[in-house]
Fold this protein.
Amino acid sequence: RVPDDVQRLPGPSSTIASWIWGHELLVFQHAATQMYSIWARSFGGIFKIRGALFHPDIIIVTDHAAVQHIFANSDLYVKSPAFRPPIKNLLGEGLVWAEGEDWRRQRKILGPVFSTESVKEMTSAIYECAERLETRLTNLILLDSSRLKDGTTLNIVQYISACTLDIIGTVALSHNFSAQSAHPDGDAALISVSWANHVNTGLKPLAFLAPIVVRAIPAVAKAPLPLMQSQGVVKTIVRRIGYRILERDNAAGKTNLVGQEDGPQKPRQDIIGVLLRARRLGNGALEKLSDEQILDNISTFTMVGHETTAGSLTFTLWELARQPAIQDRLRAEVLSYGRDLSYDDIQKLEFLDAVVKEGLRLHPASPQTERLALHDDVIPLSNSVPGIGEAFRVKKGQIFHVPFTPMHTNPSTWGASAAVFDPTRWLETRDPATLPHGWSGLLTFCDGPRNCLGWRLAVLEFKIILVTLIRSIVFVDTGVSVEEKISSTLQPVVDGKGGVLPLCLKLV
Ligand code: HEM
């Protein structure tokens, strides 16, 4: 039964919808969230599109009050049936996938790992990995004989991604992936190759079908579709590392080498320390985790903890390459503070902060999400809708798509230059009431109880890597046309190939 308020919503004409794929095929065929931005300009902050495979209309919501309400009520609006099976295949049943009591327990156990204090303690380990990246890139420039004339052109994605993999391994998992060394750990190379395959499978026309068919027939999630298989490969590799960590814990349990909870030292506060303590609790303990849950959280944090930050950071370097004046201003600020900046020093760099926010505004690594209403509800609206008013009645079972970029680039919120990379906008004071509800007025890290658990770490590594690279390397645009597509996360696509963003590098 279609609720009345959905019927009254505006939306794109059915003449541009496919009879079988609705409007969803158009969304997939365009750049990440591009169709939603275009439609939001025409139809406002809440509109409907026709779902594929005769699915009831899907509501697209970018109205600030409505989005805040949906994310604040995470027990009522849960991740949708199209969204969860791919997460399970890729990451397992860890924190990103879990719902209800299971989620609450996992979040309570893992939350303290990313407190301000804990993240501050990760500073020196992050610097070490960032400096390894700086050395690696500067060596490549020095070894390249054509560097004096033209600089060295390389695909920056794989270098940044190796650095963030090393960071998450070191600070969260007590595991050295050595992704940036001359002889990378075999696992690091396997993760990189399987992720690249997964990304490129996700860009193929057939990939559009997978979540849509799963939404219609959930059992298909287990079927041997190429997309589902490629998700499974990533998870299998990362879980293998998890097994080794658990085996080490089993051995250390007897000699008390890992975990250290009974020893004289402070208990380890990284993810693995916390997970292993939750593993050793007696059966029946409320905060006990099974081995399966631990393995799935190791794969969850390995993947969401490195590909996301790498994605947004790569696009930010591309923006800096395209705007040399902004890059110069950032470099001048960084150099004026000298080397060896402490955690507290880093917080003082205003322009760095502005560049990071601007990169995360325009290039959120996870640019949209989906929710399913578990009950009937009334959703408040910031802007009233003709024929509906300032509250929207919704029925149980309604699916919502929440694309972030249309909210981040809405000219009525951010002004006429909304689509332009201009960090100086963050140096002006803005009334928070005019911005979306979320970190810094952005939805980049989502909002509400299910916001990104790792946002403090993401912002700190973003800043440390930028500070470290910008003092010795100049990034130059290659002029190559780069498309932004979603394949699990936001991806740069060049000539149809995902995970590719060539940049030209010169020494400062
Ligand atoms: C720029 C980097 C990052 C971005 C843009 C980002 C974005 C997001 C977004 C949008 C969500 C909500 C997903 C949804 O509801 O559909 C999320 C959830 C999550 N993120 Fe991040 N993330 C980043 C980095 C990280 C890092 C570094 C970690 C951990 C080390 C992390 C761990 C998580 C976890 C565990 C969740 C699930 C939280 C829950 O459901 O309780 N993220 N992230």
Remarks:
- The two ends are 64 Å apart (CA to CA).
- Residues 148 and 503 are 16 Å apart (CA to CA).
